[in-house]
Amino acid sequence: MSHKRKHSHRAALRDAEASPHAAPMCEFTADMSVGIVTLDADHMAIFEIAKLLLDTPHNPEHALVLSSVIAVLEEAVDGHFLREERAMRKAGYPRLVDHRRKHEKFRAHLKTVAEAYLQGTTSVVDGLPSFVSRWFSDHIRTKDSKYKDWVTSSAVDDRPLAFLSMEAEDSRQ
Ligand SMILES: [Fe+2]
Ligand SMILES: [Fe+2]
Q1: What's the whole-model pTM score?
Q2: What's the CATH number for 34-172?
Q3: pLDDT tens-digit profile of 35-71?
Q4: Ligand 1 mean position to 78 CA, how many Å?
Q5: How far does residue 4's CA lie from ligand 1's centre (Å)?
Q6: Cα(22)–Cα(16) distance, rounded to whole angstroms?
Q7: Burial of 39 (C-beta count, 10 Å sphere; 0-12/13-18/19+)
Q8: Residue 41 CA: which ligand is closest?
Q9: How far is the CA of 59 from the centre of ligand 2 (A)?
């Protein structure tokens, strides 16, 4: 192990010890579980995509990969929000309207970033992984966690995320 790697490994351990409750960047942690496998899997997938965005070099040579990953992120988010909103409606969750508003706000922001990127403001991608990671960490803990007592797995459409993404797209056309 090189000196540099040894150092960064030690630094990572130190950070983890210093803040055991802070979620590492772009990582799903056990305390985020909403107790429903399909919804947890969606959340994990979104963190994975954010991580991919973080790990892909932000330079012109990777522009095609970056724009594809942003598109995949938008699809995953749309599909997940649709799945969650349908489940909340089916379960009669009383805070659906407010929850949906939070989803819409996030979607609108993501759309603005994606459009700016495609129009050439490539620097917008730099802050995207941390924005997605922070927003989802907070949203899952403070909003999604509240439907735990209402939504059971029988209310959740458990088809693959790609199907929900397609339906989300169809419903907006
Ligand atoms: Fe949500
Ligand atoms: Fe969610």
Answers
A1: 0.85
A2: 1.20.120.50
A3: 999 999 999 999 999 999 999 999 999 999 999 999 9
A4: 11
A5: 40
A6: 8
A7: buried
A8: 2
A9: 30
